[in-house]
Fold this sequence. Notes:
Elements: E1 25-30, E2 38-43, E3 57-64, E4 71-78, E5 82-89, E6 94-96, E7 100-103, E8 108-115, H1 121-127, E9 128-131
Amino acid sequence: MLKSSFDIxxxxxxxxxxxxxxxxxxxxxxxxxxxxDRHDTLFLEEPKHIAFRKPKIKLTKVRALDKSKKRFEVRxxxxxxxxxxxxxxxxxxxxxxxxCFDMAPSTERxxxxxxxxxxxxxxxxxxxxxMHYR
Length: 134
């Protein structure tokens, strides 16, 4: 019988005190050969009960993926956990391969951006707008 999913790793979370759950999240990454990585975050409390601190978000790498200046790869890193980070480019129509996601501290995410009209790298860097929960 073919299984669609199975446990690769499990951890006993019963040792976490109730008072600690507003500061705990479990982040996971699924890596499959030939497919993009998939990320997910499990918060042990509703987001409204979590004491998120203001993150410092950096675009550590922006590079063109083609000569038309319509496709770019952007690497994002944060010093704090982020809930529902979404990306926008002011006054430009763009699509993103992932545009609403959670981030764990000190992890990098590569996002591919496709623009309707070409932009120079310098213009793209100036027009970034990042929004997140809280």
